[in-house]
Write a structure and sequence with these properties.
The protein is of the alpha/beta class. It folds into two domains: 148 residues, Tubulin/FtsZ, C-terminal domain (60s Ribosomal Protein L30, Chain: A, 2-Layer Sandwich); 204 residues, 3-Layer(aba) Sandwich (Rossmann fold). The chain is 37% helix and 19% strand. The longest helix has 24 residues. The N terminus and C terminus are likely disordered.
């Protein structure tokens, strides 16, 4: 069920008290949607299968951080060529790829080795994608394993019928060698995914310049995990005005770059302030101009009013294209205790990574034919002349 601003704000109520699982009350239904780590495949009809697959060191770190959120309704899978790092990552499943290729020692920052590793181990991952509805594929661009494996995994998931959300981290601008590899990987992710969320390390440096190195990157990992859990919680937890998988699918198939933000406020104007905080995500460099869709989910305790919910959706609707689709929903969560929480998803936003080649490289080298070989000189001689003005 949902409230949909594109249909004149009509919304449909859901009486949760009248719903019962086959084995008892509503809290038993919730237990079905929570992944308890035993991976017994207990998913009742009508619940989406959601996977988070982290590829490479950075992607596995996101999986590890996601485990802190409780992973409601999400199966977390860590994939890497580095056995030592994989053993430190918390996940529901861990998969060492390319054991013959790398002997578990990693790809050494070489995407060619990463590609050979994922091709060697496709049979280990492909069966896990069967029946998947939404697949988040997280990776850092610029290294060997994540850059090469993530697009392959995303492509497999799409071919299995899943909506694929790429979640990628871009290297620092001064990492020229890694940056060219990262841009190639980003473009492959764009082609293999329905939509892509991009985080850049340079904005992380500007946000927390004085934090210890390890702590600073934990900020990025936590941000990515919160984004993913914000989306999955929206469709996994029963709501008064529900947003379901069909709503998410309608948003994601529109493609492009996706912005995900989460904001909270207990101020008198908490609906406006929560939306503003959701929009001001410092690790995402995007422009909302041209956004073609929005999903707004509002949570609050029993003091939350209908006007606060609709106002949050109206603010977002007013700032994007008038023809954009806006879906909205709401859930009462007593644990928020006076806080109003807004989870916001915008699709079709603009990012400088896609407009300027990350500011350092020509767009055509990475946006037109990412898999093309090196340019070759053509045996064509053109006579070019400069035209001079005769004006005095």
């Amino acid at each position: 069920m949902r409230g949909d601003l594109s249909t004149n704000g009509r919304c449909y109520g859901l009486n949760l008290n009248s719903y019962r699982s086959p084995s008892g009350p509503l809290d038993n239904v919730l237990r079905y949607t929570w992944h308890d780590g035993q991976l017994q495949g207990l998913r009742p009809p009508g619940y989406a299968k959601i996977l988070l697959i982290g590829a490479g060191g950075c992607g596995c770190n996101t999986v590890d951080r996601m485990m802190d959120t409780g992973c409601m309704g999400v199966e977390c899978i860590a994939v890497n060529t580095d056995r030592a790092h994989l053993d430190t990552v918390r996940s529901h499943r861990s998969i060492l790829i390319g054991e013959k290729t790398t002997r578990g020692l990693g790809a050494g920052g070489n995407p060619a080795i990463g590609k050979a590793a994922i091709e060697e181990s496709i049979g280990l991952i492909e069966p896990l994608l069967e029946g998947c509805d939404i697949c988040f594929v997280s990776a850092g661009m610029g290294g060997g394993t994540g850059t090469a494996a993530a697009p392959v995994i995303a492509d497999m998931a799409q071919k299995k019928g899943a909506i694929v959300v790429g979640v990628v981290t871009m290297p620092f601008r001064h990492e020229r060698g890694r940056l060219s590899i990262a841009l190639d990987g980003l473009n492959k992710m764009r082609r293999s995914s329905n939509t892509v969320v991009i985080i850049e390390n340079d904005r992380l440096m500007g946000l927390v310049p004085n934090l210890a190195f390890d702590e600073a990157f934990k900020v990025a990992d936590t941000t990515l995990a919160n984004m993913i859990s914000g989306i999955t919680d929206t469709i996994s937890r029963p709501s008064l005005i529900n947003l379901d998988f069909a709503d998410i699918r309608a948003m994601m198939i529109r493609g492009g770059v996706t912005f995900v933000g989460i904001g909270q406020s207990n101020a008198p104007n908490r609906s406006e302030e929560a939306v503003i905080r959701a929009l001001n995500n410092p690790l995402l460099d995007v422009s909302y101009e041209g956004a073609n869709g929005a999903l707004v989910h509002v949570s609050g305790d029993n003091s939350m009013t209908l006007s606060e919910v609709t106002r949050s959706a109206e603010i977002v609707s007013e700032m994007i294209d008038q023809n954009a689709y806006v879906f909205w929903g709401a859930r009462v969560d007593p644990a928020l205790s006076g806080m109003l929480k807004v989870t916001l998803l915008l699709t079709g936003v603009n990012s400088p990574h896609l407009m300027t080649g990350y500011g350092l490289f020509p767009v055509e080298l990475y946006n037109v034919e990412p898999d093309a070989g090196m340019e070759e000189k053509l045996p064509i001689d053109l006579g070019l002349y400069q035209l001079e003005s005769n004006d005095a």
